[in-house]
Amino acid sequence: MISRRGILLGATAAGAAFLLASRSGLAAAGRSANPLRIPPLLEGTAGADGKVYDLNVASGKFEFLSGISTPTLGINGAYLGPTIRCREGDRVTLRVRNSLTEPTTLHWHGLHLPAASDGGPHQVVEPGTVWEASFAIRQKASLCWYHSHLMEQTGEQVLRGLAGLFLIEDEQSKSLRLPSDYGIDDIPLVIQDRRFDADGSFDYDLTMHDVMMGYKGNVILVNGTASPHVVLRRQRTRLRILNGSNSRIYTLGRDDGADLVVIGSDGGLLEQPARMRRVRLGPGERIELLVDMQSDQSVRLMSYPDRVAAGGMGPGMMMGGMAGNSETFPIIELRAEKPESADLSLPERLIQVPNWTAAQAARTRRFSLDMPMMGMGGMMGAAGMGGAMGINGRAMDMGRIDERVSQGSIEIWQIRNTTPLAHPFHIHGVQFRTLDRNGRPPLPHEQGLKDTVMVDPDSTVRVITAFPDFADPKRPYMYHCHILEHEDAGMMGQFVVV
Ligand code: C2O
Ligand code: CU
Ligand code: CU
Q1: Residue 319 pLDDT more than 90?
Q2: Of all atoms in ligand 1, which is nearest to the CA of residue 145?
Q3: What does the pLDDT look like over 115-156, one tens digit per residue?
Q4: Which end of the chain has the least Cβ crowding within 10 Å, N or C?
């Protein structure tokens, strides 16, 4: 068997565009060598006004590939950050210390909070300073996350390691008796892809191709672990999955052909479990799965070629194929040696998801995602944009408020994608429901609350949400494509609640 190091570095030096684990010989070797790292829990300490969470952003070094040290960024550790855990109703203070020599931010992705606490591009934490975000947790149990959101440098800072999970629990989800023993039968999986230079450092020298198509790595990391496996100690395990990649889309499935049992998405549990052969997960999206295992069983969670990307449609076919997930490769191996037996019954109903209807909406706001160099209309779309990527013909400008939403209103946001690539569209500060995709109902796993939705090439998605509170005419929230290279290149806009 060839060493991972030899394969990876050899391939990088040879300039191979794609070298996923399936081609590196790891799949053939059968077993995934490295035990999965579990990010430590951070539960906060009792302060005068609720729970206080101390987060220190610093640079470090981490060994992703055996014997090779990679310079990284991390939060309370060398790479990634701790899993922040709190409960609905908590008051939290997140105290972010920037120990770097460069500015940064930490944005709480998926959290319903005042714009001043959002941690977006306007809440820069200068080197050597501390920024505090204090707010109440006013949402249901869900897997959210946090990451750097520095203007034009989000892609690079996230790639180097500035991301972590944000777990919210509540009474109702507890009463459903779902697996919730963190790291034991409730396992977080942050999926990312990375490229390494010959000296072991992350390769983030973006070409024009990387900016247009999004950065793709040739090594898959889960919680920072390359070729991971996890030993499951209970018969039933909950996997809480974040696609924390800059741009790669995964189409998840089990290699034993069994269905995935999906119980949750970005904003919490679904109304009922959904059984699906494949689940496509774009950057920024989350999914919660239940996995039942037999004794001595080994199952691999894989990424499979995607119908939209690989099958192609319309003029974008070639680009879609190149940018999408057209390969098959393992994400993680799940091993059950002698699992403790569990109650494998599953409630038919999980929770009640808010059910805003189109008739309640005060208005429909329209967004078009623009890539002037690549649009269906070719260069025509470039007029007035100077060739930059943008939304509604404009590239992101921190000094411009693009949309004003009235507090208390319910709105439909209609997102139109005329480009040949799929874009994951994300809205800050709210959780929405997906009304339809090209007029058709969303897939079962998309029917819960979401904050990020895939908008396929040449398609239109409508989402609906309420903006019940937090009016602040001066401080904007962002909406953007969560392909971080697109976001950094201007595919982002700002809205205020008034
Ligand atoms: Cu996950 Cu604007 O971000
Ligand atoms: Cu966000
Ligand atoms: Cu995009």
Answers
A1: no
A2: 1
A3: 999 999 999 999 999 999 999 999 999 999 999 999 999 999
A4: N
pLDDT in tens, 160-184: 999 999 999 999 999 999 999 999 9
482 Cβ partners below 8 Å, 6+ apart? 282, 283, 284, 423, 424, 425, 426, 452
Quote the pLDDT of residue 372.
Answer: 81
C-beta of 428 in contact with ligand 1 (< 6 A)? yes
**What letters, b where the CB count within 10 A reaches 16 and e where it falls short, cover 207-231?**
eeebbbbbbbbbbbbbbbbbbbbbe
Please state the pTM of the whole predicted model: 0.92
Q: Evaluate if residue 368 carries a pLDDT over 50.
A: yes
Ligand nearest to the CA of 481: 3
- Interval between CA 476 and ligand 1 midpoint (Å): 13
What mean pLDDT is predicted for residues 71-92? 98
CA of 478, closest atom in ligand 1: 2
The whole-number average pLDDT for the span 313-340 is 72
10 Å CB burial of residue 138 (0-12, 13-18, 19+) is: middle
What tens digit of pLDDT does each residue of 24-46 get?
Answer: 333 333 467 899 999 999 999 99
The pLDDT confidence band at residue 1, using thresholds 50, 70 and 90, is: very low
